[in-house]
Each structure stands twice: as structure tokens, then as C-alpha cells.
Automatic annotation (TrEMBL):
Primary location group: endoplasmic reticulum
Protein's UniProt keywords contain Phosphoprotein: no
Name of the protein: Phospholipid-transporting ATPase
Residues reported in the UniProt entry to bind Mg(2+): 433, 435, 1052, 1056
Active site per database record: 433 (4-aspartylphosphate intermediate)
UniProt similarity note: Belongs to the cation transport ATPase (P-type) (TC 3.A.3) family. Type IV subfamily.
Residue numbers binding ATP: 433-435, 723, 765, 789, 834, 914-916, 1026, 1032, 1055-1056
GO MF, one example: ATP binding
Location of this chain's protein in the cell: Endoplasmic reticulum membrane; Membrane
Essential cofactor(s): Mg(2+)
Gene Ontology CC terms: endoplasmic reticulum membrane; phospholipid-translocating ATPase complex; plasma membrane
Provenance organism: Bison bison bison
Lineage of the species this protein comes from: Eukaryota, Metazoa, Chordata, Craniata, Vertebrata
Amino acid sequence: MALSVDSSWHRWQRRVRDGCPQSPSEATPLLLAEKETRNYNPAQQRVVFPNNHAFHQDWAKLSRRYSSNRICTTKYTLFTFLPRNLLEQFHRWANLYFLFLVILNWIPTLEVFHREITMLPLAIVLFIIMVKDGMEDFRRYRFDRQINCSNIQIYEWKEQSYVQKCWKDVHVGDFIQMQCNEIIPADILLLFSSDPSGVCHLETANLDGETNLKQRRVVKGFSQQEVQFQPEHFHNTIVCEKPNNHLNKFKGYMEHPDQTRTGFGSESLLLRGCTIRNTEVAVGIVIYAGHETKAMLNNSGPRYKRSKIERRMNRDIFSCIGILFLMCLIGAVGHGLWNGTFTEHPPFDVPDAKGNYLPLALGGFYMFLTMIILLQILIPISLYVSIELVKLGQVFFLHNDLDLYDEETDLSIQCRALNITEDLGQIQYIFSDKTGTLTENKMVFRRCTIMGHEYSHQENAKRLETPKELDSDSEEWTQYRCLSFPARRDQGPATMRGQGGSQPLRRSQSARVPIQGHSRQRSMGRSEISQPSVAFSSSIEKDVTPDKNLLSKVRDAALWLETLSEGRPPKPSLATASSVADFFLALTICNSVMVSTTTEPRQRVTMPPSTKALGTSLEKIQQLFHRLKLSSLSQSFSSTAPSDMDLGESLGANIPTTDSEEREDGSVCSGGYSTDGGYKSSTWEQGDILGAGPRASLEEVLQAPALSLAGPELCYEAESPDEAALVHAARAYSFTLVSRTPEQVTVRLPQGTCLTFDVLCTLEFDSVRKRMSVVVRHPLTGEIVVYTKGADCVIMDLLEDPACMSDTDVEKKMRKIRARTQRHLDLYARDGLRTLCIAKKVLSEEDFRRWASFRRQAEASLNNRDELLLETAQHLENQLTLLGATGIEDRLQEGVPDTIAALREAGIQLWVLTGDKQETAVNIAYACRLLDQTDTVYSINTESQETCDSILNLALEEVKQFHGPLKPDGKLSGFRLPSAPPASGAAAPDVGLVIDGKTLNAIFQGKLEEKFLELTRYCRSVLCCRSTPLQKSMLVKLVRERLRAMTLSIGDGANDVSMIQAADIGIGISGQEGMQAVMSSDFAISRFRHLKKLLLVHGHWCYSRLARMVVYYFYKNVCYVNLLFWYQFFCGFSGSTMIDYWQLIFFNLFFTSLPPLVFGVLDKDISMETLLALPELYKSGQNSECYNLLTFWISMADAFYQSLVCFFIPYLTYKDSDIDVFTFGTPINTISLATILLHQAMEMKTWTTIHGLVLAGSFLMYFVVSLAYNAICVTCNSPTNPYWVMEGQLSDPTFYLVCFLTPAVALLPRFEQRVHFPDSTRDIREVSNPKSSEN
């Protein structure tokens, strides 16, 4: 049907008056016609003048305002390194805390330790970090220098040629010439490509990780250049948007000397960091340089997230600060009270130089500060360093787990965020994509419906049931796979283009400099054998067994096409053949698939624009079939081919093929090249088939050599697996895509002839429209046809209304076709197939001309460009004629049902957020055990907020009848526990919820989030269909913020990035949809089934180890510091210590530092086999059983008790004796070390040789260091020195008695608690691994 845009013309005029461009004099803000000068506003937009002779002065003035291409990622210079690094380090409050203590200790009145000793730990920490930062920054400097000094060809207007310069010399407005395999130095607008079609191919793996090639097109008006681009002839000004970080968005226009505009977008922008592929020469002008390029603006550095344990730990550190403040306050008050007991000033109270004594209040304040210095290690600053080391060890074991390695893709797990590994053990909600995450993302064509007739493809379904057998018999299947007619080839050298027999120029060779053919290496360490060189090209995706019934329809379609070529009216029996032909033409044309060959998989097959009229090729077809009189062809059509017969054999059984020697000459329709480097069409030139005149006999025609099909097999490189599946399906019915350029698409028909369609416009797929359209001119009819494919929920609403038909028979037929197609779509969805609708539309020349004018105005607009382009697409994509629909299967990944079942047993709620049709998603949900046949499933599909509110109320009321009201959220130790629905009487059925995107809009807009969340908490599974990327991220944020739950998002595509970034943990699957999800994630895996072990095993271990290590660190520091605090009660709160200060430093630095690290890295509270067999053990992490407010204060109480025992038993033992202070302090220090290490041993769940060696080694190191230090330290701490103290203690039996008795008494409560109140994992551990103690 023709498009009528008269009704929209006035609306367009209003939009133009409101700010859209009309004519250059009216709408261009940069032009002042009356002065004939140009006035630019660089503050609002970027204006680029070319750096050539004509514009050099303007370029020189404006380019100073823009960033140069020199990059600098370093943070320091030689002069700023020391002050800036120190400033950065003192931004950490821990370093400021220690600096404050150092300053206090340098005050003579407050000095507790030697000044240098107090400063030494802080200086060591600052120096180590400074060295690390300096080395990292020096590496960045070397990398920057390497990048800045890379060579590139820059146009020099004085020399009128390209000169080799460095990247750092590139400026905005420079002309850059690049060759194949060169990296693009800046963001460049493409003005010339050596490709005849004006296309340049990019590899963007360095930018977004995607390995498939991208096409960029020369700006309109520059693609038909016959010779090399001449920068001096470029007299245009470029106006575009300001620099931003949107990789896929770019808009601007080029202003010509005649004040006309040409719009351009991201399809013409070459981004910095990408690599030129398969293009000999590309020339462009620099738009953004250096730090203003999109790649640099997106380089925000490593992502940082704070784990839940870290947030909990920071709160507990403030509790420790409160304890420290209280202890220091007690010390200050006690010091004042103790000094008040003296009637005269005691001899140790020394006056100042004037003989004045400190007031009691001031003395108490000084003592308060002194106590802070003395008890400083109560704050476990070393805990942060220990946590980082432990997490590195945990990540090491994650990387080396073979169970998380996928042999097919040669990929193991990637840990991109090192600081949240423990959060893997506390997940409560998982939000998962469906396609490519739960499924393989290998799209297999299964079924289709054309004009209301369904073709089930049963033979293809049977073949797919045994894919392994198919792969093992690939050679036999290859013979069956390609359904194509034997076609004619050109005879003799008269058909060759160009002179001689020179070989065509390969796409990866340069015309100026010989460059070897490029074979692109796969990134991410993928093996060459494990994965095909072209995505979506496995045998299960490429091979399609045709349906017998559809084969006959395709034969009729071929006859219909031949009837069109002869200009004869079609037969009534071929009435539906046109729709079949259009259906397969739409599958072949309406996509962005790049055609290459198996021998040169990165060499694009193209056909240069032809200057001949299309009528020539029609004459050839007409002559050939007129001579054949269609006798044998018609006879072949009337026969029914068996299921294993090639369609080409049935159609051309009487046309002999040539032998292999004859096939080596000339071009091949399936990817042959002519001598000029262009693709050679297989349509026959006039007189090429037969050397004789028009009176040639039928025998001569049959003896003519046929076109060889033995040339390189075509490969299709698609951006999505859906496109590849549809193109492979069309090829199975001999509608073969053989060439694609931005201007033309060539399709080989079943009879072997090739038709070239002129591409007038392409409307790319986007998530808003959910469809794609291609406007072409049909070579046989000359009509302008719009082919559209997209989601059925969108296409069905854009179809022409049957009520508008004047013919009632046509109206009934259209309604019948739509109803049948809808039933088939529902059938496909119930079978779990992905559905797409195919439609077409015929435009008149006038309507298309007016629409194209609107489109050009929208493309040239800077303001509201996206909205204008969307509106132009909506004007075109309406009143469509339905052709049919397809059903594509996306199989479940291996192990998905078991993984989902295990995660559900672990107490994790799984939500699947997908953009698929509801029926398809529900079917997949049942297949993967997300939903069960016994579940009560509520489906909510409404756009009305009032209706949605009432449905939610009714569903909640019904659910509460079975499950009862939810219990209020329990809070244990500050952690919000998920309130499970209580069971009432008989077992209530499980509840599932299915909701679509329109309903989600009603929920968010109607403020119904609370009711929605309340209902979901009763559901064991939630399925959101037809959801957009924005809705996915909004759902994740809603659950994370409202329920305060730990969330995890997992996906594989670019549409999952926002959802991944919104969750506490984002996991990307390195599948077939590029690497954007992986690059935005915290962890990357290759299969969904790996999630089971990642969470249930490694997540549990990481959380359990780190949580118990943090609690142990708090206990250890408080226990040891309290020994000094208790001593203050017996030294008049003077700030003295009974332990040598070197021993105090060594205690945390050497004696007790290594055991917690080994504990945090190697300890396993439960074996892997048990965790996998009993997924409910994962709930301990969800409930924060190892580390919460209760466990923290229990550990604090235990630390106070143990410090009391460790201090007062030695005190009572040595009471009234004449030992000195260090002789008294040495047993206390030894006892406390033994108690702390034994406490660590009691906390260990797994004993290995390493555990034993570390504990014993730490204890022995204490004695070795103490003996050596006491032997050589004669005057280290005058007047009291630790000389020979340890040696004397080792000869005293009392020392041994105290050292054995005191730890036993101190650890007795902890032992009793372990015996009478064991943790929930001990019995499981003993049952599952009775010999664990031996390991």
C-alpha cells in the first residue's frame, strides 16, 4: 500500500517552525545571510574547520580551544610526586589517625614511646604505598609515551601531502590517512574509503570487547569518489555536538559553501582505539582529540564497590573508637584521682622551668591524650591491609578452579572487582536475563508461517534432536545443506572486466603499501580450534532442513519471479507466490549481515554500483528462459521433490553442470571476484551464454557451461544471532544473500540468477521501536518496497486496518490471515520459540520523495535529532502488509534447571527479566524449573494504573488466605532478615508471578511499588516479559533499596549493562553478544551453570573466611590492648607499660599477622561436596551468621574476659615479689600470645600442614626474637631494660606453670561454648568429612 503523508505535513511544518531546520537561511544559527559571514558559538556546539590552505587561519584560531591528541594518564610529575602522593595518602582517615598519634608523641609532656619508634610504622606504610604508586604511575608514563609517539599520516597543507607524524601532533581539524590494521588515533569523521561502496570496517575489541566487525560509512556525498581524497578540495565546515561519553551516539552536520547541510551520525565516526580492517585506505577529519575522545571519556578507571562486610566493619570500628574514648577517659579521671591522694607533690611529678606544677584538670587532659597513644592499636588499622591480601588469595583460587573453566570457549572466570568477593556468599535476589544467559544464544530456525499457512519443518526438528550425530557427519550434511539452482557462468574472456588476467586486490591489502592479508586473532585467549572464526556460524545454526510443503511454494515463487522478469501477467495459480517470494526476500534483505567467504572470512563480498540500467539484466533473463521455453523448468516444478533432494536439482535437473576444470574460469555467483576487485554478477550478459545468434537450439542452451558453485562458501557475519538464523533459513530455500553494500544488496534466486536491490534507506533496529526496516527499489517491478521485521507485539499493531479495504473479500482474507498468524505466534511462544513478524509496504515515488526529505532534515538537526528520527521512522512504518512470522529456537544451556533448583534451595529468589514475548518466556521458565506445573501463577497484563492496583490487591488477598500475612521483618544484630511466608495448615501451593513491561510502567507511574514488592515476597519466582533495559535496572534498584536485600544481576548483552551496574554484584556472561556486559561486570563467567558453584561454594567460603577473620582481628587487638589498660590501675594511670615497646610492635607485625591471613585464605568450614549437596547451607551467609552485631559484642566480651585472666593470674602469681616491670610483663606477653594463637586454632574448621606450620612458627618466632632481642639489648629502654629477661624466665618453673595454666582458664568459656552450643555447621562437617582433622 502507498504511504500517505499529507496528514502529517502540517505537523512537520509546525515542528520546523518550532526549531527544526527548514532552509539554510532560516534554520542555520551559524549563518547571517545579510552579512554573508559566519558566526559560530563554540560554547554550545563544536565547530571544526579543516586544516588546509583555504581554512588554515580559521583552523589556527579555533583549534587552540580544543584539546590536543596528547594524552596523559599519569597522576604525578617529578616535582609533584612527593607532596601530592602524601596528600592522597592522608585522605585516608587511618593514616591521619596515626599521624595524629605521631604528633602527640612528639610533645614532651605526652611522650609514651620513643619519638622515632612511634613514627616508624607510619613511615614504613607511607613509603611502601609511595613506592607502589610511583611504580604504577611510571608504567602509565611509559605507556602514554608509547601511545603519544605512535606514527600516523597527517596532511600538511604547506607540503600538499601526507606527512608521518606522531599521535601527539594530531589536532582537531587535521586530515588523517589510515591504512589496514592501523589503530585510529582520534575520533575521526570518515570522508573517504578505498572500498568502492564507501564502507570502512572496524574492529572495536579494544573499545567494547566485541569481536565482530563494524561498518562505518563515508559521509553522504563523499562515497562516489573515483580517485584519492584531496583535502584541498574540502571547503566545508563541520558542526557537531560537544564531547561526551556516549559511544553509540553522535550527531552533527556538514555545512557546504552553498550553505546547504548534510547530516551525519555515529555511522560515520571512527572512534579512537578501534582498528581498521579490510580497508586499504581510509581518510577522515579529526573531530575529537586526546582526552575529549569518547574512548578517553569512558575511561573512568577501575570500579570500586564497598562490600557488606566492609560497611559493617566500618560501623564496628566506630564502636572500637567509642571503647577507646571510654578507656582513655577512665585513664584521665583515674590519673587525676590518683594524684589527688597525695598531700604533697610526689617526686615523679616534675615542675616546669618556672617551678609551676600542672593543674589536675590539665594533667588529666594530657593523660587522656597519652592514653590514646598508648592504646592506639585498639583500632585494627592493619585489618584493612590483611583484608586486601586475603581477597587476593581468594581471587587466586577462584581463577584456578577448573570447574569454572569452559573448554569450548577457553575461558575461565574473571574477577574484575577484587573487593566484593565475600558478597557472593550473601546474595538474596538474582536478576537474570534469558537470551544468552539461560539459553545458548544459538538461534536455530524452527518454524514459519506465511500468509496464514504454517510450515512446521518436522524434518528439521528431527535433525536438531541429534546435533552430535549431525556434527559427526558434517560432510554428508554439507552436500544436502545448500539449496541452490545450477546457474550459468560467463563464457570466454569477453565477459571479464579490465585487461589481462590479473588477480583481484584482496581487501586486507593496501594499494599504496603492500600489507599482508590480515587474519584477525581472537581476543580473551580463545583457542582457534574451539570457536569458529565467524560468529553464529556453527553447523546447528547454519544448517536448515527445508519443509516439503514450503518447497513447492518456493518453486511457485520462482516461477512468479520469472513471470515478472518476462513482463507477462502472473498466472492465477501463482497468486500467493508473490507473498512467499517477498517473505524470503525480506529475510534476506532486512538485516545488517556482512557477507564474506570461508577462505577469506574477513573479506567482505561486495558489488560496485552499476551504471547500467536494470533492464539489461532483465533482457538476459528473458532471453534465456525464452529459449528454454520453460518446458523442462515447468515439468520440474510440477514434480514433488523428495525431502532429501536439493531444490536446485529439482528445478534444474536437465541442465548439466561443468566439470571442475571448466569451473575454474570466470566469476562465481557465490562470492567470485572480477579482475577489477569488484564482485562479478552471475546474471548473463547479452550474447554471453551462446556464441550463436538468437536462433540457437535448445541443445546448445543445455550444453552451455553452467555457473560453478564450487567457489568459496559464503559466510554471514551478523551482529545478532537472530539475523544470522533468518539469513541461513532463506539460504536453505535458495534465496541467498551474496553481496551487501550500503547502496545495494544482491540476492541469488532459486534459479541461480542474481537480483540487485538498490537500498534507498535503512532504519536500524533499536530497543524503542523494536523493529528494523529497509527501503529498497525492486529490480523487477521498479516499485519502492519497505521490508520490516520486528517483535510481533509491535508489528501487529502497525498493520493496515482491514476495515479500510473496499473489497469485502480482501477484508475477510486479511482478517483471516492475521488471526491465523496470531494463533501460530501463540503456538510458537508456547513451544518456547522466539517470534518475529515480517511485513512489507509499497510506497509511491512522491510519498517516498517527501519522506526522504523529512529524513534528511532530521539527520541534519542537532536539536532533538533522536526524536525527529524516531518520528520519521514512525511515519514510514505503518499501514504494513503482513507477510508471515518466524519461530526461532534458543536452547537452554546445559545445567540451567539444576542450577536454578539449587539456587532456590539456597533461599535465593530468582527473577528473570527479558524482552521476549510472554508466552515464550513462560515456556522457557517451565523448561528451566523456574516455574513448576503445580505452581499458582499470577499473570498481570494491563496498562491501566487503576486496574493494576485492583489486581494486586486481589492477588495479595488470595495469597494471604493460603500463606497468611507476612511476619514483620526480623532484625538480628542490625541485619534485616527476609521474612519467609509462614505455612498455614496444609501445604500451600508455591506462587509465581508473570508481568509484562506495560504493567511495570503502570506500577512505577502509579506508585504501586510497595504492593508489588509485597506480592513478590510471597512468590518463589518472578518473570518480567517485554521489559526494557531501563525497566530492568529500575527493578533491581527497587528491590535493593526498598527491601535492603543483596542483589546480583547476570546477563550477556549490551541491553543488560544497566541492570548489571545497578546490582550489588554484576556478573557478565561472555557469550555471543559481545563483551559489553563483561566489561561492565564485577565477575565474568562463560556459563550460567557456573553460578551454582560460584555462589554456593566459593561465595560461602569467601564470606565465612573473611567474616570470621574480621571478628578475630577485633578480638585480638582488644584483648592485647586491654593488658596495657589493666596495668594502668597499678601504675597510677601514668601511661607506663610493662612490655617493651619493640615487643609491642613485633606482636602485631610478626607474631600474630600470618595466622589470620592463612585462616582467611585456606580455611573451609564445610567441604565443597557438602555445600553442593545441601544448598540450604548458603542461608548462613544470607543471615550474616558469622559476623553481625551480636557476634561482634560477644567477641568483645570474650576479649575483655581473656585479657583479665591473662593479666591477673600472672599478677596474683608474682604479687609481693621483687621482680622488675619487664620480668612481670614478659609472662603476660607470652600468655597473651599463646591464648590468641590457641583461640585462632579453635576457630579453624580445616586443619592442614600449612595451618599447623604457621601457628607453630609464629609461636617459635616469638621466642627466637625475644631471646635474641633480650640478649643484645643492654641499654635499649633506660633506665629499665629487657636485657636477659626472657632467658631468666625460661629458667623459672613458675613461668611454665603460668603459661600452661592461664591460656586454659582464658579459653575455657570459648571451649564450653563450642561443646554445648556448637555452630550449625559442625555436625554437618563431622558427618560429611569424618577425617577432616587428618587433612
